[in-house]
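User: structure tokens for ATP-grasp domain-containing protein, please.
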Amino acid sequence: MIWSITSKEEMENYGISSVFKYYREALGKDNVKLAVVDENDKLDFLQKEDVALLRTASESLIKTIRAKGVKTTAEDFSKYELVKDKEKVFRFLCSCGIRAPKQYHLSSLQEGKTYFVKPRYGSDSFGISEKSICRTPKEVMEQMKYLKEEFGMESIVEEYIAGSDCTVTCINNQKYILLCSISIDCDETNGIQTRDCKVGFKECCSAMNDDRLMNVAGTIFNYLGLKSHARIDFRKGIDGRYYPIDINLLPGLGPLDHLSKSLLLCKNMSYIDALKAVIASAS
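Assistant: Done. Predicted tokens:
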């Protein structure tokens, strides 16, 4: 049995149930079940032959799943703890010799430079809009205040990379890392992904074939010591360089999410095969 496991809190906040119906249709209703549990649940329903498809970053649930000795897509909790904090991710990437957008303290802001303000924590482009691009220190302060008041979010300030967005799906099939990269056309929003673009069908994705991009993504995957799968987002600058901007260890698994799109566009893999590839990455 394949168990899609999430906490009650994340079910309420992220609507996992709306995607779970696609799991059932793709994998068969008798082959996959949804478990919405408290964070301290003992998960006694798990059997040795089951696969735990993790859909939560809860420390206690991750530790319980891994202690059960079942096949799972869960990574060590420390990995989730690292990637949720974009300030820590920046320091990690720098320590690995991987160039990411430079981060700034408020005291170092200057007139004449363009900055990008985004939430320090979180994913799925929450809090990202065209106003994230700030051309003066005053605009930076205003956007940081907006994110705090509107979403209760702490912010970070990065250098703005003029260019476009792209993403790489990384799946460990236990023999090698499958890498699929797609460009994300967001012309309506100055080339940046926004929440509205993702859910409002205002983006257009296409397959990419750039070994440099996939090599960087594979290097990050290996440096993190990941065992299962991830999606790593990048900015492609007008200088042709790729700058990692986010590492997602719980990427969306719906048929219209970027993981599924990348496998379809790059490998002509159906949604069923995409889910099977993710499940096969369980170790």
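User: Anything notable?

Assistant: The chain has a mean pLDDT of 92.
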